[in-house]
Structures are given as C-alpha cells and as structure tokens.
Amino acid sequence: MIRKIRAALTNRDARIGLHPPYAELIGAGAVVFMMGLLVGSHI
Fold first, then answer.
1. Roughly how many angstroms between the first and final C-alpha of the chain, as a whole number?
2. Which residue intervals of 1-43 are DSSP H helices?
C-alpha cells in the first residue's frame, strides 16, 4: 500500500518535471504524514 502511494506520488512529480530525489522526498514525506494521521486518529 505504501509503495503504491509512493509510486503514484513520484510518478506524478516526475510528469511535472521534478528531479527524482525531490520526488522521493515528497513521496516519503507524504507517506510519513499520512501514517502520522492514521496513528494519531487511533490514539
């Protein structure tokens, strides 16, 4: 699931024209943010 989300984010960013490292950081940041929301909502 996380890989799918990350792949979707990186693919979208790649289409916009960002360099791979930036897309990776944005994807990782989005996943961490989403996981934080999920964990926070369960606590």
1. 22
2. 2-16, 20-42
DSSP conformational letter for 1: -
- Angular region, 19: left φ>0, alpha ψ -120 to 50, beta rest: beta
**Domain positions in the chain:** 2-42
CA angle 5–7–9, rounded 5-degree value: 70
- Single-letter amino acid, residue 20: P
Dihedral pair phi/psi, residue 19, rounded to 5°? -75, 150
pTM: 0.42
| Model confidence pLDDT, tens digit, residues 1-43 | 677 766 766 666 556 555 567 777 888 889 899 999 888 887 6
